[in-house]
Amino acid sequence: MTRQPSLAALTVIAIAYTMLGQSTHASDNSSLLPGRSISALLIGGWSLKSRVTTTTDGKVIVDPGLSATPKGILIYDPYGHVAAQLSRPGRSVDMLADDCRKAITIKGTNDTSQTVLGYDAYFGTYTVDEAQGIVTHHLESALFPGDVGKNITRHIAVDGDALTIKFTTTQGDGTPVTRTLVWSRLK
Questions:
Q1: CATH among 2.40.128, 1.10.890, 2.110.10, 1.10.10 for 7-185
Q2: 114-138: per-residue pLDDT in tens?
Q3: H/E element, 54
Q4: Residues 116 and 103: beta-carbon distance below 8 Å
C-alpha cells in the first residue's frame, strides 16, 4: 500500500519549492545576471564578517558597545520583513551592573538602533530604493524601546555572496562616524 502525503506535508513542500525558486545564492551565478533587483538579491540570511567605524578624519575606532568584532545575523524575507541581531563577544553576567548603569543614560539617535548590554536587536519591515541603492528598516520592535518606530536608512551593495552596508551616524558623544558592515550570505 502506497502512503499518500498529507495536505500539510504537501503545503510545506510547495512553500519550500517556491522559496527555492526565489533563491539568490551567488553559487548559481544568478546575482551576476543583468536585471536582478537589489530587493531580490537581499533575500536570505547574512552573517556579519566585519564592522568598521571610521571618524571623518579616517581614524578607525572601536565601538565600546559592540566591540571591534561583534557577531551578527541579518535576515531579509521575500515578504518585506527584516530582523537583525548583533552581539559583543565575551558578554557575561559580571558586566551587567556597569552596563545597566550606562543603559539608563542612553539618549539614542534617529539614524541607528541602540546597543544595550552588548546586544542590539530589532525586527520590522524593509523597503528598497533600487535607484539609490538604499534599504530602509522600519522598526516594529527592538531591544531598546526608544528604537521602536524608527526608520533607519542604509546604503547597500550586493556582490555575489557579500552584502556591504554603509551609513553615517554619531557616537554617543556626538562624534560623526561612518560604519561599514560586511556580511556573508548564510548557506
A1: 2.40.128
A2: 666 677 899 999 999 999 999 999 9
A3: strand 44-55
A4: yes
